[in-house]
Amino acid sequence: MRIDVPHDLSPTCLAGFACVLRDLPEAAEYEFHFGEERWFPPFSMLLLSAMLRQFRTSRPEARRRAREHEKHTYAAHFGFFRSFGLPHGKAPGEAPGSSRYVPISELDANEIRQEAFDSFQEVGDVIEGKAAELAGILTRQQAGELQDTLTYSIREIMRNVVEHSGSDKIHLCAQYWPLRNEVEVGIVDDGVGIHRALTENPAFEWLTEVEALQMALMPGISGNPLAGRGNDQWNNSGYGLYMTSRICRNGGSFLLCSGTGGIELDHDGKRTFETDFQGTAIRLVINTADLSALRERLQHFAEEGRAAAAQIAGANLNVASTASQMLTRDFRKE
């Protein structure tokens, strides 16, 4: 059976393609045609590779063939094809990266936990170190507002994967376009998804999949019913996605895809779309032209978030955790 990969490789178009893959009739062989080389955004590579892995898992007995993939040289260099099992181009993490991009790469959640244990650190500290390393590849800086913003944003999404998804792997990529004042970061996991993670909290067990996506972006919302309790600086307080999405909406955008739906937020508002995706996929697009001091921005968002959380049944009404309001170096000073 022939399957044409969409000509439009935008995330929302690929989200619809996931529904097409789900509804395909059973066949002994599927032949994927990738078409002519065209603009293939980094996050779209990450999203499509996850969809193709999931398709392979859902139909393990079927043969799969690829056609016209050799035309996509940048995607091959980026690690796209090998990330879903096609032996073409570089493997994930093989390309060295540069001051403009981080190719498709994988991190092991269990190795992160083990590294924290072995080095007498918190898991959050290890995740922040890896986030800072990724941000440094893009910015070629060790400090500055762009470095801080990227480190914080990547850290918070990676924390969600490790703490809530149940996924063994974190799949990620990024690209920086200085002339466009834009950074794109994509992070994908193959875990339980937003709905299942959030409805583990009895306060939210009634949510539909679409409602869970929207609720996940609100302040103080967590699948952990004990969120916000205790004095641990890395305490889960349900503010990670809320804070990160607020950063992105300042001239950029935030996209969340999980289960049967997705949401894209930007300065023009909110758009929803249908999909079929196991796990969670997040794209951060950050406008680098007007970055004010990160800590002040986060504290402002946290104050607004606490007021909003007071209106949401089941939300954590305590303040956002210390880690949700700053980078490690800042709260270690206090």
Number of domains: 2
CATH topology of the largest domain: Heat Shock Protein 90
Strand element count: 8
Mean pLDDT: 89
Low-pLDDT runs of 5+ residues are none
Proportion of residues in β-strands: 15-25%
Label the overall shape.
globular
What is the top-level CATH class of the largest domain? Alpha Beta
Could you name the CATH homologous superfamily of the largest domain?
Answer: Histidine kinase-like ATPase, C-terminal domain
Tell me the radius of gyration: 19 Å
Q: What share of residues is helical?
A: 40-55%
The computed structural class is: alpha/beta
CATH architectural name of the largest domain: 2-Layer Sandwich
* Main pleated sheet: 5 strands, antiparallel
* Alpha carbon gap, first and last residue: 62 Å
